[in-house]
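Batch job 17 of 40 flagged for manual review because the log was empty.
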Amino acid sequence: MERKGVELSTLRKGLEILGLFSEETPLLDTSSIAERMGLSKSTVYKYVQTLEGSGFLVREKSGRFFKLGPRLLELASVAQNPSRLVDVSYPILQELVDRTNETAHLVAIMGTHAVCLAGFESNHSLKLSYKPGAMYPLYAGASAQVLLAGLDDAAQKRVLASVTLNRFTEKTITSLKELFNRLQQIRRDGFAVSRGELDEGTFSVAAPILSSAGDVLGGISVGGPLHRLDAGRETKYIQLVRGGARKIAKLLE
């Protein structure tokens, strides 16, 4: 079972916009970005709105110009850490697969999506398959929702204001009120469990990787066909992913 991905052209354009900022051009407005990218202002506005909503860009005082935001500083901090997020996660993801015989993967926020950074697959012939670089909407599925739940209320609203809650299955949450309630529950619980919200007949159990300050750095999950998830396994998987997320966070300190 291969997860639904999103065309990487959107990711590429977002990264190209971020790459326009430099010491020589620390501030850019929508018109300047559109001209440099060869895109319409309306198209650029959508990209910029997404980047702003996720903290990659912020507006300066006049509100006209944008500059690089704090989210990039967080990523730079992780990248400079000798125990990088992906590197330290590998053995923990492998341990999750060994102990559950289900697929495990690592995700992080990229704009309005969760992006898969790494994954280890189950030995079952019927399994979920995650490809590094694949992207999924932040509002659907446990592994994405733990990331969205880790943002503060204002950041959540900015992200959700720039997306449409499309229905992937009958279980997909398409009501903002229901989604906000779900995110509050995930915050309280420290984990998420989804059943068929993004792909029919699948499950995912996920937990956020949090910094010492409580910021979400990423998330890990295990998932597979729904018929293999019973109450006992669900309880076990919750404990394992929460424990794994804490281990990763500790290694990143």
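Reviewer: the log was empty due to a logging misconfiguration, but the result itself is present. The chain is about 45% helix and 20% strand. Unflagging and moving on to job 18.
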